[in-house]
Amino acid sequence: MQIKIINKSNHDLPNYETIASAGMDLRAHITEGMTLKPMERKIIPTGLFLELPIGVEAQVRPRSGLAIKKGVTVLNAPGTIDADYRGEVGVILINLSNQDFTIENGERIAQMVIAKHERAHWLQVETLSETDRGEGGFGSTGVK
């Protein structure tokens, strides 16, 4: 699949690091270091602008290493970039640790997964089919 992209950053385009990678790293495009205090959230610019085909979304997800090592994650994970959005890709980061975290220009801050999706058309009915699970939710299937 080809996707049109404008790169206003001074970084390489996002790319797959391995043959089996689902996501591509997104890098911060900032002029100077940006510090996130504990429990603080900010939108981090990437310098990237996309033109996705209809029926495709870009999902912005946390980087596992940043989450486990620094306690920094994507707040609205996964964030969705719709096919009709033409603005800059921004990443909403939050610092869940108890220490300040400084983001530097070019730092890998999130990953982006390109995914096809369906459009739903609602069919309003009076009843739904029965299942073994029924209305059970939030842990109703057990813990083991």
How is this structure best described in words?
- The protein has 144 residues and is mainly beta.
- It has a single domain, classed as Deoxyuridine 5'-Triphosphate Nucleotidohydrolase, Chain A.
- Helices cover 5% and strands 38% of the residues.
- It has one helix and ten strands; from the N terminus they run E-E-E-E-E-H-E-E-E-E-E.
- It has one helix at residues 64-70; strands at 4-7, 24-27, 34-36, 41-51, 56-61, 72-74, 79-81, 88-95, 101-103, 108-116.
- The strands form three sheets. A four-stranded antiparallel β-sheet has the order 1-4-8-6. A four-stranded antiparallel β-sheet has the order 2-10-5-7, with no helix packed on it. A two-stranded antiparallel ribbon has the order 3-9.
Enter the CATH topology name.
Deoxyuridine 5'-Triphosphate Nucleotidohydrolase, Chain A
Shape estimate? globular
Radius of gyration: 19 Å
**Helical element count?**
1
Quick one: CATH superfamily? Deoxyuridine triphosphatase (dUTPase)
Strand order of the largest sheet: 1-4-8-6
Give structural attributes.
38% strand; 1 helix; mainly beta; four-stranded antiparallel sheet; globular; 144 residues; Deoxyuridine 5'-Triphosphate Nucleotidohydrolase, Chain A; single chain
What is shown here, in short?
The chain is built from one helix and ten strands.
Topology diagram in text:
Elements: E1 4-7, E2 24-27, E3 34-36, E4 41-51, E5 56-61, H1 64-70, E6 72-74, E7 79-81, E8 88-95, E9 101-103, E10 108-116
